[in-house]
Amino acid sequence: MQNGRTALITGGTGGLGVAVVEAFVADGWRVVTPVRAGSVDKLPKGAVPVVADLTDETEVTTAVSTAVAAGSPGSPLRAVINLVGGFASGPLIADAPYAGLEAQLAANLRPTYLVTQAALPHLVDAGGGSIVCLSSRTAVAPFPGGSAYAISKAAVLAFAASVALEYRSRNVRCNTVLPSVIDTPANRAAMPDADFAKWVRPDEIAPTILFLASDASAPTSGAQIPVYGRA
């Protein structure tokens, strides 16, 4: 049974995104998830796919409009969950080309900015809602060779804080979650010698995101929530 609300969830085919989509669907949300062409079959059952490149402003606008239309009139857009992003490491700053930073900003900040920007008028018109952005512990605790990733994820924190400030009087909240290393197959393959038991699992992060989208967290906006596991 649907709860009369629509959530737009980006990155829904990723290691974290699948768990988040499943949690929202199980909670009765109507879930719309932008995906790249050829990835529709990777979405969990119950999600409504819309093919879009979230670095393209026109396609983002179309995807958000589709989410709004999919929920109209009985399930208005009430939540935007920004999970899409990317990771890259490289040399220390003196040897790191600026293009590497631009690439990480394009992967981590640009989609979050464009999707949120396009969704805000709809959330306001619907009477308010919740935006959740995905940052990283690296944004507040960088590691050598990870400056571009850390800067891009710190930019997400600044962006979310700005949204929370500018839209609090319009009943739109914006919060951020900061995972440590997420226990996904891709991360296990990249770091085979790590202690996986210390990493945070996607199904441990998803309930926090669901809570931040729900009325139960109504007083909370501008928060930066650590979800580190034991890492």
TrEMBL record:
Pfam families reported in the protein's UniProt record: adh_short (PF00106)
InterPro entries cross-referenced by the UniProt entry: NAD(P)-bd_dom_sf, Sc_DH/Rdtase_CS, SDR_fam
Record's keyword terms, sorted: Oxidoreductase
Keyword Transit peptide: no
Matching PROSITE patterns: ADH_SHORT
Keyword check for Cytoplasm: no
Family recorded in the similarity comment: Belongs to the short-chain dehydrogenases/reductases (SDR) family.
PANTHER family for the chain: DEHYDROGENASES, SHORT CHAIN, ESTRADIOL 17-BETA-DEHYDROGENASE 8-RELATED
Name of the protein in its database record: SDR family NAD(P)-dependent oxidoreductase
